[in-house]
Amino acid sequence: MSKQHVDQNSGMDAATSQGSEPSKIVTVHNRKGGVGKSVIARSLAEVWYQQGRQVFLIDMDSQRSSYREDHPFAKQKPPFPFEAATDPVKVKALLEQYADTHHIVIDTPGKLAKEYLFAMAVADMVVIPTKPTADDYEPTADVVKMIKATTREPAIMKMREGVPIQFRILMNMTDPRKANTEVFREFYQRQGIPLFNTEIRDLVALSNIKMTGFPRPNTNAGANIRAFIREIEDLMMTLAKAA
Ligand SMILES: Nc1ncnc2c1ncn2[C@@H]1O[C@H](COP(=O)(O)OP(=O)(O)O)[C@@H](O)[C@H]1O
Ligand SMILES: [Mg+2]
């Protein structure tokens, strides 16, 4: 762990630092826009930061959707280090630079392009947010197909030491009063597409994070993202043991 990280992550509790462990990388991707990739990526980073972890956020969107100083509303600067990088070569350099940070979150734009395969290939977990609507099914299934096809790509499998890219669909913007989420969940399951058990609810506090920052821990949004983080961490632990 470099001094620079400690300085930038001043909220970090020194006792929780495990500088010698490699970073855990979570990539958030879907080729569809508006499914909540940037909200989920930023929320994960914010809550890990609230938990005293070292965090680094990479924004691969050329529109710099995670934060823009010149934006009239989206002005709430993340409290942790973050950087925009559209080019995989630059992303690779950043991953090396931040290799001893606890958590690296990569946000990608809603486009189907080869360069996002790199961002998924380096990840310990790929989160594919999707809304429980019929329109979201096809783009989401396309991303899953693209990920599954990488098991036939020797370069990617070599880079991952034979471990297939790990991914799950995340139901986002769900409303517990509506039955639609369960319908879509069952539909994805029937197609053999794995889902996170946790769902992210449609919450005003999450839609406002670019304006107001992430809400305090004792809010519905905080509890929802923490539950999601527990599931991601449990999964990564199980996968690490199996490897
Ligand atoms: N869980 C959520 N609850 C409420 N609003 C959300 C949630 N997730 C995303 N949004 C809103 O939906 C819109 C699209 O989200 P965004 O993260 O920009 O999607 P993407 O990055 O996939 O294009 C934004 O207006 C965002 O504030
Ligand atoms: Mg986005």
Keywords:
single chain; 243 residues; alpha/beta; Rossmann fold; seven-stranded parallel β-sheet; 10 helices; 7 strands; 42% helix; disordered N terminus; binds adenosine-5'-diphosphate; binds magnesium ion
Task: Characterise this structure.
The structure is a single chain. With about 240 residues, the protein is an alpha/beta fold. It has one domain (about 5-15, about 25-240): P-loop containing nucleotide triphosphate hydrolases (Rossmann fold). It is built from ten helices and seven strands. It has helices at about 5-10, 35-50, 90-95, 115-120, 135-150, 155-160, 180-190, 205, 210, 220-240; strands spanning about 25-30, 55-60, 80-85, 105, 125-130, 165-175, 200. The longest helix is centred in the C-terminal third of the chain and has 23 residues, at about 220-240. The radius of gyration is 17 Å and the shape is globular. It starts with a helix and ends with a helix. Bound molecules: adenosine-5'-diphosphate and magnesium ion. Adenosine-5'-diphosphate binds near residues 35, 36, 38, 39 and 200.
